[in-house]
Amino acid sequence: MLYSAVLPQTTPFRHGHRLQFPRTQSKIRSYYYQNRFPPRTRPFLPHFLTKYPSGYRKSLLGSSSFDSSAPPSFYDDDGDDFDVELGRLLALLPEEMRRRVSEHPELHQLIEVVMDLGRKPLARFPSGDFVLSDLPIMTEDIQHATSQVGDFMIDNRAGISRTLHRISAIRNRKGAIIGLTCRVGRAISGSANLLRDLVQDGSSLLLIGPPGVGKTTIIREVARMLANDYKKRVMIVDTSNEIGGDGDIPHAGIGSARRMQVPNSDMQHKVLIEAVENHMPQVIVIDEISTKLEAMAASTIAQRGIQLVATAHGVTIENLIMNPALEMLVGGIQSVTLGDEEASRRGVQKTVLERKGPSTFMCGVEIISKTQLRVHRCLESTVDAILSGRFPNVEVRKMDYLKLSETAERELFIYSSFDKANEIIVEDAQDMSNEMTSLDAFSSEVPPNMGVDCWEERTPLRLFVYGILEASVTQAIKQLKLNDAAIELTENISEADALLALQSKLKKNSRIQAAVKSHNTPIYVTKTSSLVHITKGIRALMTDLKDGLKDFEPVDEMKLSEKLDALEEARIAIEQVVIPKGESIELLPRPSNVMSLQMDLIQKYQLEAERIGRESDVRLLILPHRSRMDEEGKISERDSATGELDDFVSANGDPNGSLYIVDRLPLLPD
Ligand SMILES: Nc1ncnc2c1ncn2[C@@H]1O[C@H](COP(=O)(O)OP(=O)(O)OP(=O)(O)O)[C@@H](O)[C@H]1O
């Protein structure tokens, strides 16, 4: 039964009011679910407050009416505690909003409620935003909500006692709260099962992912798993009380793991060290490492042999390598100048980037979505591979939630899947009660080196379309009967795998030409925007890129490495020679697009540079003061920014270059 269907049987769902629920019905449901699902595999059940004595129910409806004589932990594995906790978040909302959100079919997947003064309130669901009221939010609505939550700390976050919800405030310049983001927190049994083998091994794990992808939820479950299932002494350093929930008694979702609160986020690194020195933990769990000090503290802890499980914001391991505050987590990066002999033996530039030392973490996990992860079992090897322009070994692990019936019950199913040389192996969906069997099978079947294919195979081809209607492209994709996920249209040229453009339009846009040139993106042009030509173009690019992926991608990776190398060279030259010594310095010869990147960096330091040398020997000379560029420098810069398509074709039009001509249409006017 849906939560919304339960609500009409209750009295108005307001702060301080008791909810009524027919006892007989609850007994039937409890019996049904307890027999249907083994512990820890039961879904979140919509029956509301079924097993609490009525006096206790009242205490769950708002922090101000919280009854301290209530049992220390009301959370158990039945899942219905989530309904209680969701109720406490919804109690922050005015009645009309509460009713509308309660009637939403995705109530149990609710992510956040957003209330901004003078605007219509929104509920965020996985399927998108839903307007909760036609009336704008008023000051009283915000006051009503904030009066029921704990104190807002320096990070502008507050919680609701004994729940996992996070209430974040937006303030005006005078400090008054004018907006709230109310994030629903959940303890999800099974959410870390894809990592169970690594957790059990004692590996230190670094989880990275963008905001809201589910990092905290996974890390909370890892803490519980380690403490309860593997009987480890686990200490959580809980910077915003998000892992263990608000209040002094931690949420039952962390099991028997202990939790240290952090007075303010600047103190996180100190509390980390204190945790080790005072409480003899075997495992430390920490959410959101974001500063150099925190990264240093984490690396100190790892050196003491403590299993560390942590999260950081970022999308891929590469993002960490590029982040000066966090690069230490992966061992730190340094620029090394090789001797001529060594450079030619390795076939690389004289200056290369290398990992400085051991990584703080054994494994890295990129969280792609709530159901998909990429595991780098050996983070050090991944970093070394990225720095040297190779593809890292990576395991793709997937989990799926399947809807079982129209009653919106959910049961967790698990897939273990990976790709091996274009072959996709997906094990049968299994009931969670069999999850360990599934995982064991998975772990033993994962080949030690899965290489590039497993990474690339699942990534859709990102296409930047120029001068052609997106609707036509979508229609062409349909005509070709391609998988929906095979092509993704992107508006960001730098992340595109290919460009599909109308020839006449592309010729007129030198900015796009320069951009694709600097990213080395293959171009496909059509002479007309007819569906026939577009379809031909897409077929050609799919075939080329599929066939050429292996030859093509490593080249791009090499290019990335060269860019990193060149930028690091420029940075070191500026910071160690030009600025402190006031001397000019020549960089190594580089391709023109890489020099443009170096030039951007130099300008960020408010310095200027000249291009010197000829042909293959062109390089930048960084000047110690602001000076006018000589004519040669100006001309080269202008050329790269506004170069004609003709130049571009002559530079890239060879069969091994990045220019592809659809249906052999000539690019230049006949
Ligand atoms: N496996 C899951 N199934 C359903 N909902 C989930 C799952 N994992 C997380 N969520 C929900 O998604 C939202 C975001 O999760 P969470 O706070 O863990 O993300 P996060 O990556 O830590 O975010 P941030 O970086 O902003 O702190 C929450 O409402 C959470 O309850």
How would you characterize this protein structure?
This protein is α/β, with parallel strands linked by helices and 670 residues long. The protein folds into 5 domains: 181 residues, no CATH class; 169 residues, P-loop containing nucleotide triphosphate hydrolases (Rossmann fold), CATH 3.40.50.300; 60 residues, no CATH class; 95 residues, Response regulator (Rossmann fold); 91 residues, Ribosomal Protein S8, Chain: A, domain 1 (2-Layer Sandwich). The protein has 22 helices and 28 strands. Strands 9-8-10-11-7-14-15-16-17-20 form a 10-stranded mixed β-sheet, with helices on both faces. Strands 3-2-1-6-5-4 form a 6-stranded antiparallel β-sheet, with no helix packed on it. The site of adenosine-5'-triphosphate (ATP) has 16 residues, from helix 8.
Looking at this protein, list some descriptive labels.
670 residues; alpha/beta; Rossmann fold; six-stranded antiparallel β-sheet; 36% helix
